Amino acid sequence: MTGQVRAQVLVVGGGPVGLLTAAELAGQGVRTVVLEAAGAVSEQPKATTLHARVVQSLVRRGYLEPPAADGAVSRSFHFAGIPGLSVAAPAEEPAPILKRPQADLERLFEARARASGARIMRGYRAVEVRTGPDGAQVTAEGPHGPVRIGADYLVGADGAHSLVRERTGIGSSTAPATVAALAGEVTLADPAALAPGWHRTPRGWIVCTALPGGRTYLRVLDCTGAAPDRRPPAPEELRRQTARIAGRDVPMTDIRWPSRFSDFSRLADTFRSGRVLLAGDSAHVHFPIGGQGLGTGLLDAVNLGWKLALTVRGLAGPRLLDSYDPERRPAARRVIDNTRAQLVLMNPDPFLDPLRGLLGDLVEAAGPAGGYLGGLISAQDTVLPARTDGASAWEGRFLPNTRLATTDGETDVVRLLGPGRPVLLLAGERGGRYLAEAGPWAGLLSVVRTARADALPEPALLLRPDGYLAWAAGGGGLGQALEAHFGGRPQASAARRGGVRAGARGAGPGGPLPPPHGYRRSARGRDGRQLGEHPRTPVGGDVQGGQDGGQHHAGQQVPQQAGDPLGQVLVVGQHLGHLLDSGEGAHRHRGGLLGHDVRQQLALGLGPFEHVPDRRLPAAERRGAVEPGGLHVQ
């Protein structure tokens, strides 16, 4: 007999992305069920790196501790094994890099989801998916027999081979593998034989990470071509391939968790189809360099969670979910481009050495704030597409953590976003004028008032639960912004359940905020373009599948062949274009991201190479990520 389960939202896939999505939903009172085939969290080494915007987002949602120290922090990174890149986080924010094993994150998210009432069904594998205009029905096989789960909404977080994506007919663009890579946990007979870091040889790369107990996590990259199949490697294959790339024998014992991966990439044609939404690897797959896959998926979950929760609870119209795809798909597309550019630069062919040298000089010239690449890999350059007419310069930007003194004591942006509600920040008497206009959204908003008008960049700000600014005074009516961002006026019955909740009065640090660097709506640059338009095809441009299985960007075919280094240089060209275009800003605004004043952090929050994208393009959200680490380049 088939069991029956009913949920408001069913999440297929209990990895970090699915569990975080479930925690976000359940925390807002949504009846949530998670299906996960694995009986327990896997201890196999996986991703460990969280970059700045991911850390900042998880802190705001209460999964990580807020920063304890004041002052901006920078960390050393690399791009494609090229050392010297610095990435900075603004004052009052966490350090821009956090090392946390994926297994620990999964346990954290699962505990939070369960505590909030989510049902985690481990040991159940989805085998059939049916969808319709009113929801979805999924059949799963488990230890107690088959079960059928009905839900109003379905989230596919079931990995690269997503059943949800396949059965719901969501297409995708793919690019074939061109390299072969192996990974595994080993004990080196001589730890000095491969020091922790990145080792480049004429045959490929070896990346070593020290683990507790004298163990080493080994990754070996062969740039000569793709593996003939995807079968799991035997331990001996990892030993043999390490010796081949190193050019000498590297004795090792106790080889565990051997795995195979490549640069195969996939991007779903849409992240939403009716009541089905994709997140994480089910929506995007790319070469796993620098932990950006984990971070991109977690940012999917943070973006989707509050939107889906408000929709299910009737506190926003169904159009709110329409913003998920145009905000997150370009972000994933940009990571695919970013990782492919890095992989081209990692090709050991001497033909590419001048290009690596040039990029190394540009990285070094960026200085402590990191420039364009610093914002790219940390995702702090993200600017979301505008959703209102006559949008303010601040709309779509991430609000740095800001201290606000109130009659109840000091608070800040991190604490205000903890409950997961949109926040209306009103400063001084001018800000208070917007209170009545927010009335129809009484069940949606939390209102916080400060006494001084200079506590915020504008006298009134509308802050999304994920930390991005949905509106600022001077950018049109607040009511229009609320309707545009939250999908129309909330249902009356739901609105009556809440009430516009006003916080205490207070004050923040003084001084007016300048407009964002580079942003002038009516100004024209010396080449005639309106400032804010990029002269080149956006890095996150549309990706379409070609007949040859490759990807085509803005009408240009990007070569896939590993043996065509001249053609592969084109993949890097757009990133170099951003670097060169932004050089003047680096000199004018050096150190802007390191300032302690929140007004400077918001205005220059993308670093000295910041570029405000053309807000008419969905690709306005573009990001990427890379991993830090000591480098031993041979």
From TrEMBL:
Coiled coil: none annotated. Residues 489-561 are annotated as: Disordered. Residues 7-339 form the FAD-binding domain. The keyword Nucleotide-binding does not apply. The lineage of its organism: Bacteria, Bacillati, Actinomycetota, Actinomycetes, Kitasatosporales. It comes from the Bacteria. PANTHER family: BINDING MONOOXYGENASE, PUTATIVE (JCVI)-RELATED (PTHR43004:SF19), TRK SYSTEM POTASSIUM UPTAKE PROTEIN (PTHR43004). This is Monooxygenase. InterPro entries: FAD-bd, FAD/NAD-bd_sf, RIFMO-like. GO terms for molecular function: FAD binding; oxidoreductase activity, acting on paired donors, with incorporation or reduction of molecular oxygen, NAD(P)H as one donor, and incorporation of one atom of oxygen. Keywords: FAD, Flavoprotein, Monooxygenase, Oxidoreductase. The keyword Magnesium does not apply. Residues 524-536 have a biased composition (Basic and acidic residues). It holds the Pfam family FAD_binding_3. Signal peptide: none annotated. Its cofactor is FAD.
